What does this fold into?
Amino acid sequence: MLKRWRHWREDRQLARIVLSQDQWHEAIAVYPRADRLPPELMARWQDLALRFLLRKQFHSGSGFVITDQVRLRIAALATLPVLGLGLDWYNGWYSVVVYETAFLSPFEEHDENGLVSHEREARSGEAWLRGPVILSWEDISDLDDPDSNVVIHEFAHKLDMRNGDADGYPPLHRDMSPARWQQVMQAAWQASQKAADHNEPTLIDPYALEGAGEFFSVLSEQFFMRPEILRKHWPEVYEQLALFYRYEPISQLLYPW
Ligand SMILES: [Zn+2]
It folds into this structure.
């Protein structure tokens, strides 16, 4: 009953939002495949992005002025990973914090003697378990690197965290095999590790090798931003990600549940 009421209220709020197609196209300009989306998928994406704006609160980091343009671009990129999954996959947390540039994040470092030092490191994005997503606007608006996308990266962590820590093992669907997922991801990890060890170019950003959670998020960036490259080199990874995201970005097909 509560859920129905919430949807009714959201539909009414949605009907009151005035959004020009120019605003929308400006928001999605950072997504290189936007022009190829069929109209029904584009409409679905826009609907998800606007509902995202209604459900999440935006907060400024260090006084950054958050305009409608900032909000809409982040909402658009954040909802790309849930085109097939649906927005409820982002339930359970409420805030997006936006800084103008990379922000300093405190982190703990443990040395071999067990000593803990507290450092501050510049970050372009962070996703907290059951907490906010934190982003740097400068890194979101950077169009120079077509492979990477910090918003997709952080929101992939959020999906991964639906069953606990960001460990590269998000909740899989009934038509997926956990053993197959693990086998495919491990093989890709080992191939990346081998290339990195030999100073050879890696298919994805070597940052992915920081841990299994990072590996999943970096693969997700590649899956949405440059799916042809991923499918060409690692078709099995592409297939597993399509099954998870319930969406196939090359054929632009949504998978049934
Ligand atoms: Zn990450």
User: Anything to note?
Assistant: The chain is about 45% helix and 15% strand. The longest strand covers residues 103-110. The chain has a mean pLDDT of 93. The radius of gyration is 19 Å.
